[in-house]
Amino acid sequence: MKFSTKLGLWFFICLLIIESISMLVLHRHVVDSLVKEELNSLLARGNSHRDVLLTSITPDTIQHIVLMESNTDTEVVIINENGSVIDSSMQTSNLPHYIVKKSAETDDGVVQADWKQEAFIATVSPFRSEEGSTGYVYMLKSTNSLQKVIQQLNHHFGIAVVIIMLFLLVTNIFLIKMLTKPLIRMKDATQKISHGDFTVKLPIKTKDELGELAESIQALANHLNHLQQERKEFLASISHELRTPLTYIKGYAELGRKPTLEDTVRLEYLHIIHEESTRVSNMLEDLFELAKMDQNAFSIQTQRRNMEEFILPIYERARPAFDNAGIDLKLDVIKSFDIQIDPRRFEQIVLNLLDNALKYSSAGSTTTIQLNKRGDECFLTIHDQGKGIPEEDIPYILDRFYRVEKSRSRLTGGVGLGLAIVNELVEAHGGTLSIKSEQYHGTEVTILLRENENDTNSND
Ligand SMILES: Nc1ncnc2c1ncn2[C@@H]1O[C@H](COP(=O)(O)OP(=O)(O)OP(=O)(O)O)[C@@H](O)[C@H]1O
Ligand SMILES: [Mg+2]
User: Ligand 2 center to residue 356 CA distance, Å?
Assistant: First the structure.
């Protein structure tokens, strides 16, 4: 059975039960008040006859009362204290069995209220005259007319029930349709997703739970789409990055095998083969590292270090390479700080950033490593005056294999994994990496670490 049918049915059954119960209660209440009303008016009439009798209990008055009642749909029976009928507006043989002597003290006035089974409903008004004679004025009313009124009432109730039912049915169908339509759309969308089609569009804009669900499904689809795209690009990049150096290696190895080749040329070829194989092996190492980070099979072992003392040897080691390239490498400590870091990993971060500054700057420029601290925020900034990164490339610069130079020429350096690794490592330290750059002017990479961020997992 369809969900919408099931929901509709449940909804309808619940409403039906609620409606039936309330209708029954209402019906009972109306009938009860109707009967009560009749009994009250009967009793009032009986009481007024009794009051007349109390002022003068003469055969004339009694006859007058009986005469009065014989022209109405009510009957009167007047009984003396011994239980024998003094006078009655109906034939004594038709008198109901319950008309017997009653005790005035215990009486609430109603003698018969059963309008369903009995031929009459009845009330009694006992009296005791000043002369000491006592008796009872019984008032009776045929239940026929009451039954007719109630029958009519039932008929009206029946019509009302049918109308309400129809109304409920229509609103039910409408409501269920409204409720299940977005659900069906979402079901279709998730089915599409499960079949590998992530291009779903869910135009549900409501701000309720259904809207949130639709938004989540849409986000999931977009995410999966992005992942699929990324995987495709990733595989394409890997195969490309492997193919290029392997083609060189294969080519130069074949050339090097020629027996007539001069030794110096052969050495040069061997050098190229060595360089290219180092490149492949470095790339595989980087990829392996990233894979470990992705699987969370990677942990950092932090210890508290003074950043200035930590950075100084790295700076000294990097300087010759910068000198060679004619770039001035400076260390600018505005404010040093102590911080939790994994020394081996942090060195990898700094070396990678310095490698970029070196690769993408030209002679005569300056690269600065700057340390600073504001509040509990510690900054390590590497600023170069190199060629910069075009604005449109900055959002993607941390993606794996992303390079500004799409040509992937061997002269313009790496494979585009450096910053991806740096970013993962900075995040593992609980820090954030931000890159500001202006094309042809330079790049500024800032690592922000918080003083107490890694204290919990420190093991110094
Ligand atoms: N300091 C910088 N100045 C200018 N461009 C930069 C700088 N740092 C990075 N880039 C640009 O960002 C791209 C990605 O940098 P990333 O370090 O990830 O890769 P790579 O240096 O090309 O290769 P790898 O670091 O893997 O050897 C680079 O190709 C370069 O185009
Ligand atoms: Mg790099």
Answer: 5
| DSSP classification of residue 302 | B
Residues 250, 112: one domain? Answer: no
Confidence of residue 449 (pLDDT cuts 50, 70, 90): very high
Ligand 1 within 6 A of 241 CB? no
CATH number at residue 258: 1.10.287.130
Take atom 7 of ligand 1 and give the residue whose Cα is closest. Answer: 356
**Pairing of the two strands 442-450 and 432-438:** antiparallel
Q: Are residues 276 and 308 in the same domain?
A: no
Same structural domain, 22 and 128: yes
Q: Can you give the pLDDT at residue 101?
A: 53
Beta strands at 432-438 and 377-384: parallel, antiparallel or unpaired: unpaired
Neighbouring-strand partners of residue 434: 446
pLDDT in tens, 50-91: 888 888 888 888 899 998 888 888 999 988 887 788 888 888
| Burial of 142 per CB tally in 10 Å (0-12, 13-18, 19+) | middle
Which atom from ligand 1 is nearest to the alpha carbon of 361? Answer: 3
Over the stretch 208-258, which tens digit does the pLDDT of each residue have? 888 899 999 999 999 999 889 888 888 888 888 888 889 999 999 999 999
The answer to whether the CB of 348 falls within 8 A of the CB of 385 is: no
Q: Regarding beta strands 338-341 and 377-384, do their DSSP bridges make them parallel or antiparallel, or are they unpaired?
A: unpaired
- Ligand 1 binding pocket mutation candidate from 286, 351, 419 (most atoms within 8 A of CB): 419
**What is the residue whose two structure tokens read 């059963």?**
114
Query: 367 and 382 in contact (C-beta within 8 Å)?
Result: yes
Q: Which of 159-163, 206-210, 412-416 has the highest mean pLDDT?
A: 159-163
**What's the CATH code of the domain at 109?**
3.30.450
Q: At what angle do helices 343-359 and 307-324 cross, to 10 degrees?
A: 30
Q: Are 349 and 355 in contact (CB under 8 A)?
A: no
State how far the Cα of 367 lies from the Cα of 356, in Å rounded to an integer: 11
CA distances from 74 to 5, 52, 202 (A): 56, 18, 74
- Closest Cα to residue 420, out of 409, 405, 410, 435? 435
